[in-house]
Amino acid sequence: MTKSTAPATARRLLPDAPLLLAARGERPNRLPVWFMRQAGRSLPEYRELRADQPMLQACMTPELTCEITLQPVRRHGVDAAILFSDIMVPLHAAGVELDIVPGTGPVMERPIRSASDVMALPVLEPEALEPVAAAVRLLVAELGRTPLIGFAGAPFTLASYLVEGGPSRHHERTKALMHSAPDVWHALLDRLADLTLTFLGVQAAAGVDAVQLFDSWAGALSEREYRRFALPHSARVLAGLAGTGLPRIHFGVGTGELLGAMAQAGADVVGVDWRVPLDVAAQRVRAARPHGPVVLQGNLDPAVLLAGWPAIEAQARRVIDEGSAADAHVLNLGHGVLPETDPDMLTRVVELAHSR
Q: Fewest CB within 10 angstroms: 46, 102, 167, 240, which?
């Protein structure tokens, strides 16, 4: 693993934390639950705090990152905090010129299109991530018995933004580069795997209790493409974290047909979006990885949270029942919390999970 120059924080011992027990394939005494994008978006206290703060600035301000990360833990009583961050943070910290445009997403000043562009990518130095490490240290001191999940985007998703220059529906430039210049593509993802390992390594050294590798756009690939162009690089990141002893979660959007391949990338927990029932996902993961426990995370459709409590309760109970097909289950959404979500509905889902 890429080393951090900062001394490692003494690891917290959380032997009874439901999330960490589930990640090891055990069935804790209550179903663990947290929500992707719980740190913000739907919370009025978050919007008030972020009113005049650009996203990347907020992510690099330790006290602000700490407070935003803590807000959903206080409000909902979830079983884990997820570090408030963005997949662009390590690129920004390395010196890549980019902006997160409201209503659009990440936009690159100079898209990557050639071997010379790849060679020109700056290297991420651990020292540039000191604000992130400082935020983690603050959180470890504040969270008590609640685990903190570190976070990073997977190399394929980072590459997609860099090559396209911003968000894309069809990923046409990305796929064109993969197939027309595979050497350039793999060189780019090698660089991004190093960057991601540095980012997660700093978080691990600062004291996070688990990590999630988030592959937003992997679902744009066929399984053949995923195995050739994305899997080796995600696997290198996950393998590089094995020595930390931290549970590793791997999640992608639209990846139902890739679950078998993703299960072989090396994570302890496989995240599942809302398109595939968890009992079906358990079968696919078990078939691809017959040894060791099958631990799934997911997968309530975020849009259901806008449907009113009777529908939410029915769908949450269905997801919980289907999750029993795995050896262990972490209740979550099949993607992130939508901004229009009533926060009280999230709290009620947590209460329902904990009552099982």
A: 102
pTM to 2 decimal places: 0.95
Domain hosting residue 190, numbered range: 18-355
Q: What is the DSSP string of 160-172?
A: HHHHHSS--SS-H
Residue 348's CATH number = 3.20.20.210
Closest CA to 18 of 337, 295, 300, 316: 295
**Residues with active-site annotation:** 37, 41, 50, 86, 161
On whether residue 348 sits in a domain, the answer given is yes
Task: Please report, in tens digits, the pLDDT of each residue of the chain (356 residues total).
Answer: 444 444 566 678 899 999 999 999 999 999 999 999 998 889 999 999 998 899 999 999 999 999 999 999 999 999 999 999 999 999 999 999 999 888 888 999 999 999 999 999 999 999 999 999 999 999 999 999 999 999 999 999 999 999 999 999 999 999 999 999 999 999 999 999 999 999 999 999 999 999 999 999 999 999 999 999 999 999 999 999 999 999 999 999 999 999 999 999 999 999 999 999 999 999 999 999 999 999 999 999 999 999 999 999 999 999 999 999 999 999 999 999 999 999 999 999 999 999 98
Residue 4 forms part of a structural domain: no
Residue 216 included in any domain:
yes
Give the chain's domain count: 1
DSSP 258: G
